[in-house]
Amino acid sequence: xxxxxxxxxxxxxxxxxxxxxxxxxxxxxxxxxxxxxxxxxxxxxxxxxxxxxxxxxxxxxxxxxxxxxxxxxxxxxxxxxxxxxxxxxxxxxxxxxxxxxxxxxxxxxxxxxxxxxxxx
Length: 120
Description:
Elements: H1 2-19, H2 38-42, E1 51-52, E2 55-56, E3 59-60, E4 67-73, E5 76-88, E6 91-98, E7 103-107, E8 111-115
Antiparallel strand pairs: 1-2, 3-5, 4-5, 4-8, 5-6, 6-7
């Protein structure tokens, strides 16, 4: 019985500690409904531009933006907020922002999408 209570307390503490990583979802600083441009990146609204010879080739992916996700890297899960999602040359790419403001870009399979509900 004591072991069960201890395990429950550890689980609650771990979740609470993880939840502290999540910033509020932004009201600006992301793109929806169009491919990112260099101006979007310069303004901090996108993490990448999918282009060939200076011509945008990205097509927006229909997912909820912004939303919470984990970026999976080297066996670790980094909490991020998805700020853009595009398909280019058959690859589904996601741009996301970490709590420290640093952007990450990867294939959609590198992310665990969590939706747009504030995690507590």
